Amino acid sequence: MEKEISISSSQGEKKIKKESSSERKKVSKQRRTESNRMRSLNYRKRKKDHYIFLENRVKELENEVSEQKQKLDKFKQVFDSLNILDSTRDSINKFIQDENFSFRGIPKLIEKAPELVNPIMIDESFNSVGPFGTLRILRLKKAFKLIIDDVLPINFKLMLKCFNEKTNEEMIHIAKSGLNRTRTQTKYMAKDEKLSVDTLIALPNYTKEFIDSWPSVLPLIRKHLIELKNIVRDLVKLRNKLFKRLSQAHQTINNEHLKFSKFDFAELAKMALKADDKDSLLNPFDLYNIRKRQKTDENDYETNSEFTEQCPSEIAKTKLVLLECFELTFLAIKKHQ
Q1: pLDDT tens digits, 159-193
Q2: Which of 38, 162, 239, 317 is the most exposed place for a label (fewest CB within 10 A)?
Q3: Residue among 192, 196, 151 nearest 318 (CA)
Q4: pLDDT of 84
Q5: 243 and 290: one domain?
Q6: In the predicted model, what is the mean pLDDT of residues 109-120?
Q7: Residue 168, exposed/middle/buried by CB under 10 A (0-12, 13-18, 19+)?
Q8: Residue range 240-288, pLDDT digits in tens
Q9: Is residue 144 one of the residues assigned to a domain?
Q10: How far is residue 49's CA from residue 168's CA, in Å, rounded to a whole number?
Q11: What is the pLDDT of residue 182?
């Protein structure tokens, strides 16, 4: 009997142990499941937060890119407005570099290592900075263009444009018609992208007193501006004549086949540099027979010409008329203000 009780008790203990073991496994499994669920929730939360962070970061970067593009557009506009000056500066620097190489670098190279200098090198330098060299002509063309662009301020350019297409009477009639226009007509005219001469005359809100002074002022201003236009046209003709002479001088030197060696070239370059260092020898006023103006001559262009009798008379006449036109035009405007 005792044996049966002991057997049953041992079996009961084993059963209890087995049940407790299964319960522990079940609890452990539940814990793992809960832990995995929490890990999954945390991962999804982190992933969502990271996605939101990336979205916000993308928006910030897009805004930053947009701002940088706006700044870049502004810089580009400024750069485009200075493009002519920059290109002129670049061409001047290139011209100076090539000229220094031609008259300083090559002679020094001939002196130290003559075997490295060949006729082709000298010819290339001549074709670059010679009388009709590519860089010299480019520099002269840009210099003439700047002079022509700067002869008149933009308001005088506008008047000359109107004078080219309209008579004085037509300009006065258009300006007076603009005094009675409505706001709607003004807005419509302001949207005109072509900006015709009629719009340029009628659109500004001029006072009646100013327009009433036109009949007496316009003829005088027209006369001076037309003379200035003709002077600029003569200047362009002189420029073309100058280029033609430079081309002929360049071709003559090339066609004559002067019998000089690279050592002769070096000696000539040395003498040219030495003379260039002396202002009194290669001074442009002395070379072209131009008399320097004195400080007391600032307002006396007619009796104290900068040109001597040896200088072409048409150039002196052109300069005097140009200065006279400017003075008379400003005096006329000042008188009727």
Answers
A1: 999 999 999 999 998 888 877 766 666 665 566 65
A2: 38
A3: 151
A4: 43
A5: yes
A6: 83
A7: middle
A8: 999 999 888 888 877 655 677 888 888 888 888 888 877 667 877 778 7
A9: yes
A10: 75
A11: 66
Distance CA 254, CA 123 (A): 9
The number of domains in the chain is 2
For residues 91 and 227, membership in a common domain is answered with yes
Residues near 127 by beta carbon (within 8 Å), at least 6 away in sequence: 133, 134
**Cα separation, 84 vs 147, whole angstroms:** 13
If DSSP codes are grouped into helix, strand and coil, which group holds residue 205?
coil
Q: How far is CA 238 from CA 14, 144, 209, in A?
A: 125, 11, 42
Structure tokens at 303: 């009796």
Domain that holds residue 7: 1-57
Residues with Cβ within 8 Å of 144's Cβ and at least 6 positions away in sequence, in order, are 235, 236, 239
Radius of gyration of the chain (CA): 44
pLDDT digits (tens, 9 = 90+) for 98-113: 888 888 888 888 888 8
Query: What interhelical angle do 83-100 and 134-150 show, nearest 10?
Result: 150
Measured over the CA atoms of residue 206, residue 211, residue 212 and residue 216, the dihedral's sign is positive
**C-alpha span between 192 and 178 (Å, rounded):** 15
DSSP letters for 302-327: TTS-SB-TTS-HHHHHHHHHHHHHHH
| Mean pLDDT for all residues in the chain | 75
Let me know whether 240 and 287 are in one domain: yes
Three-state SS string over 223-263 comes to HHHHHHHHHHHHHHHHHHHHHHHHHHHHHHHHHHCCCCCHH
User: Which residue is listed with tokens 């004085």?
Assistant: 168
Element spanning 265, H or E = helix 262-277
Q: Are residues 36 and 139 in the same domain?
A: no
Residue in the structure block whose two tokens are 């009798």: 309
Residues near 186 by beta carbon (within 8 Å), at least 6 away in sequence: 203
> Tens digits of per-residue pLDDT, 130-157?
888 888 888 888 888 988 998 999 989 9
**Is the distance from CB of 203 to CB of 178 less than 8 angstroms?**
yes
